[in-house]
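Researcher: I'd like a candidate sequence for this fold, 201 residues long. If you have to choose between options at a position, lean toward the conservative one.
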């Protein structure tokens, strides 16, 4: 029993001395930490002055190479202006007259081989005549070729010179079945027709 007390007292003394020694050590090191100067890192800031001189000169782009030379355009063909709101044109049925007699035995007329109109094109109403409210007609004669086209239009009579050019243009666009004699197409001269120009209400 006494030995146990003695052992406990000895342990207590050792622990107390150890704590005292540790406290003394902490005090000594803490005092040194407070008194000794610290190594502090310094940060250096370098300020660069902004360059206020800006290059504000405008850069002129280089001129592009010249385009290739384009050939001059062909002069526009003279045409009558067409008004989409223009009144329609009344074209009278063709009054065609020509010498259709064929020489030969008995002077027989071969009707099945005679020329026949296939296409008739309406003329363009002249703008000046339309603006003036003019009406009229043009009588023409022409030749129907072996191919059925029209050549050599000749104006026989016109009520106004304003209609003549439009009538010629229209007649040149006519198409015919050519006259056939002995299986060979032939031309037919002196074919007459009338082109009428009438403003419909």
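Model: Candidate sequence:
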């Amino acid at each position: 029993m006494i030995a146990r007390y003695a052992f406990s007292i000895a342990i207590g003394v050792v622990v107390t001395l150890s704590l005292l020694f540790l406290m003394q050590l902490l005090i000594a090191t803490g005092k040194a930490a407070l008194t000794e100067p610290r190594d502090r890192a310094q940060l250096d800031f370098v300020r660069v002055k902004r360059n206020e001189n800006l290059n504000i000169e405008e850069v002129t782009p280089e001129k592009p190479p010249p385009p290739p030379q384009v050939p001059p355009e062909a002069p526009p063909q003279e045409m009558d202006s067409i008004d989409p709101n223009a009144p329609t044109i009344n074209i009278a049925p063709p009054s065609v007259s020509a010498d259709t007699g064929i020489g030969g035995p008995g002077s027989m007329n071969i009707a099945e081989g005679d020329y026949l109109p296939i296409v008739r094109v309406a003329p363009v109403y002249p703008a000046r005549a339309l603006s003036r409210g003019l009406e009229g007609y043009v009588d023409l004669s022409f030749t129907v070729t072996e191919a059925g086209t029209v050549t050599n239009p000749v104006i026989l009579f016109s009520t106004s010179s304003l209609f003549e050019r439009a009538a010629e243009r229209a007649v040149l666009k006519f198409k015919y079945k050519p006259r056939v004699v002995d299986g060979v197409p032939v031309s037919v001269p002196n074919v007459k027709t009338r082109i009428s120009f009438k403003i419909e209400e």
